[in-house]
Amino acid sequence: MTTPDPNGPVARLLRYANEVHSLAGRCGRADLAEVLAGSAARWKDECTDIVVAGAQKRGKSRLINTLVGHPDLVPVDADVATNCFLSLRRGPKLAAVVHRSTDAGPVQTPVAVESIPEYASMRGDAGKRRDVVSVDITLDNPLLDGLRLLDTPGVDSLTVGHRQVTVAMLQRADALLFTLSAQDQPVLRHELEFLAEAAERVQAIVFVLTKVEDSANWRSLMEENQARLRTFVTQAVAENPDRAATLNPLLEAPWIPVSSKLAEAAEAKRREGRQERADALRARSGMDVLERHLRGFADGRDFARGATVVNAALSVLGSLGTGAKDDVAAGSDDENDVAARLAQVETGLEELTELAARRRAGAVANTFLGREVAGIVAARTAEIRQPYENAIATLKKQDQIDRYMAELPMSVQRSLEAAWSQIVYDVERLSRNTLDAFARDLGLDPVDLAVDRRALPNLSQIQVRGDMAADAPENVDMVRDVLPSASIGLSLGGFAATLLGPVGFILVAPAIGAAIFMGRRSMEKVQRNQAALRSALRDQFSLVSREMTLDLERMVATWRVNVEQIADESLMRRRKELETRRAELKAASARSAEERKKARQSGQDRMTAIDTLTARGMELRKELAAAVAALGR
User: Fold this and answer.
1) Which pLDDT belongs to residue 480?
2) Distances (CA, A) of 387 to 74, 181, 256, 418
3) What is the pLDDT of residues 239-252, one digit of tens each?
4) Contacts (Cβ under 8 Å, ≥6 apart) of 631
């Protein structure tokens, strides 16, 4: 990394961050100093991290494949698995390493590149996906020189776990590519909310409109997207003017229309030797414009990282300002100043009491999660069982039943194993939605559930048997079995007698009667076996459902207890902070006039320093924002 210009914004930012860090230390707020140190920790990382995010079916994964020149590298038409991301960086050869987080610690496993979807996509094998945190892919592509592309799960509102993983990745991002599709609906509310959250962490943001090759009205769709973004930002800033600094830059972010399809066609023409046609298709694809932005991010990563550090510094200054204002108020000769600050603290304590009541009510509502888990398991297992019952109804012969019964246990086991991953996913999604709402109601950040990618419960060997008594000797019922068969045999025997005479009657009537008798017995045996199979199948699925439900209820109960414990700790910490402030204000007001004067002067000096640093930070943020906006242009 080159040494920054001593008078440039980056060098001034480093000096500024050191000053804020020192002020936090002098104020006795080591916790705030640590926040700022953590934000600047990645400064020496010479690889620019670019997060690629968007909802499912927005063309995100195909875009990444096109950028790196490997159409089948990243799974397309299947979302990245929950709690997993894909990292693409430059290396000497095409290779992939799966990173897992296990009870024994992190585990790295090299895998074949073609098997990446099995480990990293929602259509992959549930067993292979278990515990996977990321897949690190290396390939020799000049575009990735100094760049790392991070493909993240979709940010759709129904996949809360996906969204949280993507938001977490923004903590390490220098830039964000947010994808929208020209062949899909305009930007949705949950996507806008994600962007607002992203803008608090990342300043270098680019909107990429994919799939423009087959859309005649992509320009009007892009304008509608921009209008929706403008309306969202305007309303959000009107509700909270403090968000203007982070949200308004979204309105200045560039929009780049691209077509992976045209870029791939250009490469095909180039291989055919049709350079002029290839160049025309490549220009239409928009990929060159996007690549210039990516290289701009790599060359100007100091600006992007600087913006993140400034945001952290301004947040630290805001927290320091609260303590300084308390000291000024406590040292005031006007008792109304202290009374006003105390009133604010008392209001905060009253709000915490209300939150505590809502926490208790929310905890009661959370207890019903177990019932909903049982409903999910019952619905999914019923979906699996029904095709088997339908198949049983089609079995008309005993040999068909015998073959079906031989294959049934293993078939049911495979079906349950395949469904288990989806059941866990459904339960996890339900729990996240419920517990996230609980946390938001208490003013907490979204929950972080410890998902362990659970294995299927250790079910006993599937046992589904037919009517074991069907093959046992059975008493003959004269009325039910013999008389109907004999009657039909005599009738047909009489018909044979008219044709063949008495001999025909003697030969035909008994044979027909015996055939009918055996046919009825065989048909009844099949029917009994069908009924027994259906009954046994239902019993087995009922047992499996109970075992699955019990296992998942334990998992959900653990999540619920952990989240409620975090809520309790947060409420207790906030109450302690407010009670400490109240005690300090009361103690300060009881000091001597000289002591109050010193406290007031100390608070005023800190407020002056904080105001000066805040003003400098705002100017630096504007300067860095302009530098970031110019990257790639």
Assistant:
1) 42
2) 34, 37, 48, 15
3) 888 788 788 889 98
4) 204, 293, 296, 297, 299, 300, 303, 304
